[in-house]
Amino acid sequence: MFANTANTLAKCKACIFVLTIAATSVSTQTNAPQSMSPATGPTRSNVLRGEYGRYRANNDLLAYDLDIRVDPEKKFVTGKNTIRFKMLKDDTRIQLDLYDNLKIDKILFRKSENRGQRSDNSSTELKYERDSGAVFVDFPATLKAGRTYAIDFYYSGTPQTIGRFGGFTFGKDPLNRPWIFTACEGEGASIWWPNKDQWKDEVESMHIRVAVPNGLTDVSNGKFLGKTDLGDGYTRWDWLVQYPINNYNVSLNIGNYVHWSDRLGDLSLDFYALPEDLDKAKTQFAQAKGMLEAFQHYFGNYPFKKDGYKLVQAPYSGMEHQSAVTYGNRFKNGYLERDWTGVGISTRFDFIIIHESGHEWFGNSVTAADRSDMWIHEGWTTYLECLYVEFMYGKDDGLKYTNAYKSKVMNQRPIIAPRGVNATPPQDQYFKGALFINTLRSIVDDDKRWWTLLRDFYDHFKYRTIMMEDIVAYFNQKTGMNLTPIFDQYLRHTALPVLELDFAEAGTVRYRWKTDEAGFAMPVKIGTRARWQLIRPTTEWQSMKSELKKEDFSVATDLYYVEVKKL
Ligand SMILES: [Zn+2]
């Protein structure tokens, strides 16, 4: 393995790890919601952020219309988010979220919308209560289940620049022009705009309107609708997201971008880079086509076709922002000019283009309903890297790339983090997650069936937010196997399954699994690499005849991510 993994990665909390943040200096402030401390339990802000409580569960988001002005000189944001939602239960209060350092200017209840009378443009100012990042909005009368309502949430202030990605950063590009971006998976979208800041409930569509000084470009998510000169030195850029989107994916990228287009079949591809990097960017971004072809081969159409695929230069390593993936990998193959998996394969492609775009399928289309289950984003997308390698370079290289990730696994905390408290899972969600999915493929032990299973799995859950239990139930049903103890061992426990082999009696091998899950039963291939034999160990001892000597007796550990203990 190459050096610098464990220490650097242990601190990472968002999509992909930033070894350095180039071109932008990011200061760290302390008044963000703090992560969970094992000694003290979750903070109040993380309980409020993480819990899907009564005032969130009583409504279902329909649409956001975010309309803001960004002033690079004053480092100031002002505007409003119009939030449309349907009530699921009668109630007088809902929970939204906005970081405490941002000012709430007013929250208006739209009467015309809510009464269905177009002529009535009046609105009522609503009362609210702020608590550790949450904003509880109170209505003068009961909102009725089944009916749709809308509020205009006006706010202003200077969003914080925090976290490894920057949260909201008023930066400068290398030629000292404004370069402003958001990257807030860890911090939450309420670091810069008011919303229902959780993962379970997504809007069905969203307008993003960002006014910036003339001459600058804003690239946000969705389809570009057009720009309007506002006549006061500002131009507003309008974007429309036509699919469900999770909050942390909503982004702005404001800079002196140049834009070029391409197509892959009927999918529009749009690219944005700084003018001085244009040649390098055009060469490197050409890899997007091969990436799309690989993932479309396994999972079908690109999920956000109406919105198009965009790749946008950014000053940090990269982020999966839906339909507007950000890129900062220095226009070089590998990851930040390193051989990421250390076996000579990751230098053949641009890790960030492949990984961050893979999230369009897992993370953006199929999304975890709680941060605890973020392996649905990261484990699956890391596995998609492995599939990309297999598609481009063959199965052997795919397996080599996958197994190289073993060197990054820590096995110190379970992959599934505590639920409902905004807890971030450990980095094992990436590498152990991918190795587990590869193990699942070996359990199925039939590639044709595996490809069908993967494709159906994706199709079944696309555009939805789900939990681990949904995935287990799906695989159990489709395979007819009881995979629950296997999923639980890999995702809910720290230790790998240990295959114990006892050679005490000549000509016989005894075997069993040693695991935390009592019902753990997983087939595994043993014997010699030239001629594997399938056995079905459980947690009880079984025996088999074998002429192989203890030192010659192998286990197919590149197909099954397990530990082997020879007794
Ligand atoms: Zn990722």
How would you describe this structure to a colleague?
By secondary structure, the chain is of the alpha+beta class. Helix 8 (375-393) crosses helix 10 (428-444). It has 13 helices and 29 strands. The radius of gyration is 25 Å and the shape is globular. Helix content is 23%, strand content 31%. An eight-stranded mixed sheet has the order 5-4-8-2-1-11-14-13. Strands 16-17-18-20-19 form a five-stranded mixed sheet, with helices on one face. Bound molecules: zinc ion. Zinc ion is lined by residues 15-16, 355, 359, 378, 381.
Strand and helix layout:
Blueprint: H1 6-10, H2 44-50, H3 54-57, E1 59-71, E2 76-87, E3 91-97, E4 103-110, H4 111-115, E5 123-125, E6 127-131, E7 134-143, E8 148-157, E9 167-172, E10 178-183, E11 205-213, E12 217-220, E13 223-229, E14 234-241, E15 252-255, E16 258-264, E17 267-273, H5 278-285, H6 287-299, E18 309-313, E19 318-319, E20 325-327, H7 351-358, E21 366-368, H8 375-393, H9 395-404, H10 428-444, H11 447-461, E22 464-466, H12 468-479, H13 484-492, E23 498-502, E24 508-514, E25 524-528, E26 531-535, E27 542-545, E28 554-555, E29 563-566
Parallel strand pairs: 1-11, 17-18, 18-20, 21-22, 23-29
Antiparallel strand pairs: 1-2, 2-8, 3-7, 4-5, 4-8, 6-7, 9-10, 10-15, 11-14, 12-15, 13-14, 16-17, 19-20, 23-24, 24-27, 25-26, 25-28
Bound molecules: zinc ion.
Zinc ion is lined by residues 15-16, 355, 359, 378, 381.
